[in-house]
Amino acid sequence: MRDGTIVVAGASLAGLRGAEALRRGGFSGRLILVGDEPHLPYDRPPLSKHVLTGEVAAGATTLPGVGALDAEWRLGTPAAGLDRAGRSLLLADGTRLPFDRLLIATGARARPWPQADEARLAGVHTLRGRDDAAALAAGLAARPGRVLILGAGFIGGEVASSIRALGLPVTVVDPEPAPLARALGSVLGGFMAGRMEASGVDLRPGTRVARLEGDEAGRVRRAHLAEGGTIEADLVVVALGAVRNTGWLAGSGLSADEGGLSCDGACRALDEAGRPDDAIFAAGDVARFPHPLYGGRPVALEHWGNAVAQGAHAARAMLDGPDAAGAYAELPAFWSSQFGLNIKSLGLLEGADAMAIVQGDPGTGRFLAVYGHEGRTIAAVSINAGRWLPAYEAPIREGAPFPPITGGADQPAPAPFPPGLPSMQAA
Amino acid sequence: MRVVVDLNRCQAYAQCCYAAPERFVLQGDEILAYDPAPPAAERAAIDRAVQACPVRAIRVEHDETAERAA
Amino acid sequence: MTDTDGTLFAQVRDPENRADPYPLYTRLRAQPVARQDDGTWVASGYAAIRALLHDPRVSSEDLPPAEHPATGNPIKDFFVNPIKDWITDRHRPFIFRDPPDHGLLRRQVMGQFTVARVRGMKRRTEALVDECLRARAGATRFDLVDDLAYPLPVTVICEMLGVPREDEARFHAWATQLATALEPESRNDEDLRARNTETFDAIAAYMRDLIREKRRAPADDMLSGLATTKDAQAGRMSDPDLVATAILLLIAGHETTVNLITNGMLTLLRHPDELARLRADPERAPRVIEELLRYEPPVHFRTRLTRAPIPVGDVTIPEGVPLVLLFAAGNRDPARFPDPDRFDPDREDNQHFGFGGALHYCVGAPLARIEAEAALTALVARLREPRLVEDPPPYRAGASLRGPERLLLDIRGIA
């Protein structure tokens, strides 16, 4: 199809790149992008890094492509419901937008602190959008006496790194035994812990916060630990991961929950019976799709690269049909930078039962680790060694015997060990 | 001008830093810091950075309307 | 369609095919990774080259293993080994090293190849180009190689390194002499080999003195920096490493850039519409230069050595064999570049191998771009009605560092 009306719910990276791909693919009809924020699509990765350090303004990351895109923008009006039978998207302001095709790219939001009254205390932040980053940057500019970060995942680590770069005292609390343990395993997590502590972070692994306490003015003052004791803080960043924005799909009959909107390899949304809807597609953080490289396991990837590639894939399927598009099989990849380290990852580590450091040496701060599952290579992570990573694309794609690539330069004999990842069942 | 770098692609070859040193800087070994909204006057330098990138990770959109108005 | 001719790479090296090796590359790519009759393996497909470039089993310390029959090794005939043979007795420069040494040495060089220093050469390079063109004012015939492309990079790299101006002439002579070692025949020419060894010893002795002088009175140049800076991990670079590095930079900064400029002008003269567009809009130069690096790269291949068996697609390259990464063939791979034999500066997503890639990506790339831009924009602007006297021009012997020996142009003067 090349004409008619296509509505894109979600005006961020996946929605923008999907819309661009539609135009590039020859779609000449009406194209409407709906966004809950009042902003044109902007880039998020700098928000936890150079925006917090003040090197980049929060409002400066509008994405290239928005100027040339021939589309109607409905910004600041969240999608509120979906009338599948009537092929219409319902907006919060009451507007009804009929469509021939719908691309759902509503992404995710920061998981809030579970106690709503505590989450409302002044000085308690989450970080997901541009406005969040601006508010947090303003809070940091007031030079708080101590910052407390709840959660030592990628966002928690990046925020902690930025705050240390500003010279502010920071404490990081996480129930896991090491930072990034859920994502990279406790072995790499242990390495990161050393870096964080060397950078002056007061790291408290294996620690839970039970509640946040504010003063009479409603400003956060301290956190009470589940094990007893308190941590004083006048700024708290809640970095507990994200939940997918699927609440607005309630009652639509689509298979959606906090973990994402289920779709097939051609990005078609699935109904509760698992049947694809030929008019409704999903891409980006919100899309939970079966990954062929990982046995068709449903995954929803909060990756920048996934938003770009899946947006384009959905566009292809919308224009030329699911068969022409084929099954979406992009090799998962992401990066994070914190504490002077550039962390790059290929593949999915989830479920890895072995890892090996196959190039470089953690002692020098430059190395590459590979991850295996039942004797097959499933992922690789480089630390300040990004130029080594492309060699592992093919072994991961092909599920090569683990460990792959041995006997090369600067390759100590591989000695695989458990990566310290949570088991699949537990995860 | 709007700039975004695909940091999955980026391998820290630093060619952009030579082309437009005011807008691209390597921090440490391979963390690229860049200005996502450089002034229109730096168009030539930014275009050089785009061309010089060995992995073509830099995307730019010039805001023609804004530039004409300026 | 599989081309089973195991002599294709030998044909690439045959000077008869120097002017146009591209049809051979097309035949080689029918098998993206192929064994040649002499035991060499050649990677010519884009995807294979990219993967192998990043693969730690592909070693740059490519001295063939002793058990490899000497007669079956064509690499011995290449430009690299004659130079390497002298140097390995001493210290190999970092392009012939693997991690972790490579990383330490390269980082120290990069530390001196600063943005400020490289960009500082831009104006200077433009002035040098102007000098070269003024020197030939009024001429009606111009040899691009002798009159500009050859002298320019030597002067630039000498100034970067910090070779005193009065010694530059000696460097020109040394560089010219060492360049003969790049020719395969030098292996069999005892006199030539002796002269080259003598030259190498002379440069090395000169460098040692110069380094001592830089330590005594450091100036704002690369050699002073290398001689006096201590790396946090590697400490101060040893004198033999410093000498090897300096000689490498001299040769690499020179034998390659001459080809980029000369191949560049040749290509533009063969595509007059593109020459006219560049003349009308010098801002096109960065695009033109990147496309030149794809279409007519200064370095066509590099030879490495496999440290372990490497599976690539449905073949496995054995351990201990010379492996040629044929960048210039990957640059013309239709699976990667649409319409690859078309010279098209407006090409998007031009991820060429013109400067190699991965750990060994050309250190001097930013400098080469500055030199090529200064030279090409000045040439198209100032040579009046340039016309090729010979097409194809005569080529130097090198199959890897491939470029014209001279590029004669008839002109109606220089503006």
TrEMBL record, chain B:
Q: What SUPFAM superfamilies does this protein's entry cite?
A: 4Fe-4S ferredoxins
Q: Does the keyword Membrane apply?
A: no
Domain of life, per UniProt, equals Bacteria
Alphabetized UniProt keyword annotations: Electron transport, Iron, Iron-sulfur, Metal-binding, Transport
State any single GO MF term: metal ion binding
Name the InterPro entries on file. Answer: Fe-S_cluster_ET
List, alphabetically, the Pfam families matched.
Answer: Fer4_15
Give the matching PANTHER family.
Answer: FERREDOXIN (PTHR36923)
* Protein name according to UniProt: Ferredoxin
TrEMBL record, chain C:
For this UniProt record, the keywords arranged alphabetically read as follows: Heme, Iron, Metal-binding, Monooxygenase, Oxidoreductase
Q: Which domain of life is it from?
A: Bacteria
Could you say which residues form the signal peptide?
none
Cofactor(s) this protein cannot do without: heme
CDD domains, alphabetically?
A: CYP164-like (cd20625)
Instruction: Quote one Gene Ontology molecular function term.
Output: iron ion binding
Family note:
Belongs to the cytochrome P450 family.
State the function annotated in the UniProt record.
Answer: Cytochromes P450 are a group of heme-thiolate monooxygenases. They oxidize a variety of structurally unrelated compounds, including steroids, fatty acids, and xenobiotics.
The entry's protein name is Cytochrome P450
Q: What is the lineage of its organism?
A: Bacteria, Pseudomonadati, Pseudomonadota, Alphaproteobacteria, Hyphomicrobiales
